[in-house]
Amino acid sequence: MEEYTVEMALKEGDVALLSDDVLTSVAHATGFLLQGEEVEKLAVLYQVPQFLRHCPEDTLTIMVPRICVEVVDWSEAVQAAAAEALYPVVGTKITSLVAKQVCMASLAIINASPPGEVFDSWGEILSLILNQVEKQDVVDLVVPAVITRAAEGHVGSRRLAARLLGSLSD
């Protein structure tokens, strides 16, 4: 079986070798997200836009939900890469279930992260997905988070609350 090298800039010299079936199968790639080393997870996340382009249904029904469940347990570097991988997803018309999963993952990361790159990236994902989340889910899940963030003393938290309010008004 032919192998492709996917180079990641996690650390100088890190290289992930992913076989052809991993790079062409959403199910196999998702397995690496669940059980792979950090550099393998990063390599798969780097490929999410290609999976979305070539296998949109599998990407949205298999990979994205697993990212949403697993992301809270990943390192900050992988969480940041996951947010970047989801940018094309939130720009695509997706089901309300997948939108809710992305919303819930975003809220979980935001609640667990101090202000910084990961917090900001997932706040952006949340603000971009809100227009695809059902209204009642927004009321139940997002509005309480906005109120909490608006009341916090940190500027980044208040800025996120303002951005989310702006997204809600659209």
SSE topology:
Elements: E1 3-7, E2 15-19, H1 20-24, H2 26-35, H3 38-46, H4 48-54, H5 56-70, H6 76-90, H7 96-112, H8 117-129, H9 135-151, H10 155-169
Antiparallel strand pairs: 1-2
Helix pairs in contact: 2-3, 2-5, 3-6, 4-5, 5-7, 6-8, 7-8, 7-9, 8-10, 9-10
Question: Care to describe what's here?
Answer:
The chain has 170 residues and is mainly α. The protein has one domain. Helix content is 72%, strand content 6%. The chain is built from 10 helices and 2 strands; from the N terminus they run ββαααααααααα. Strand 1 (3-7) and strand 2 form a beta hairpin. The termini are far apart. This is HEAT repeat-containing protein 1. It comes from Compsopogon caeruleus. InterPro entries: ARM-type_fold.
The chain-level structural class is mainly alpha
Number of strands: 2
Q: SSE order in H/E notation? A: EEHHHHHHHHHH
Identify the overall geometry.
globular
Helix residue percentage: over 70%
Count of separate structural domains: 1
Amino-to-carboxy terminus distance: 50 Å
Computed Rg: 16 Å
What descriptors fit this protein?
HEAT repeat-containing protein 1; globular; about 170 residues; two-stranded antiparallel sheet; 10 helices; ARM-type_fold; mainly alpha
How would you concisely characterize the structure shown here?
The chain is mainly alpha-helical. It has helices at 20-24, 26-35, 38-46, 48-54, 56-70, 76-90, 96-112, 117-129, 135-151, 155-169, and strands spanning 3-7, 15-19.
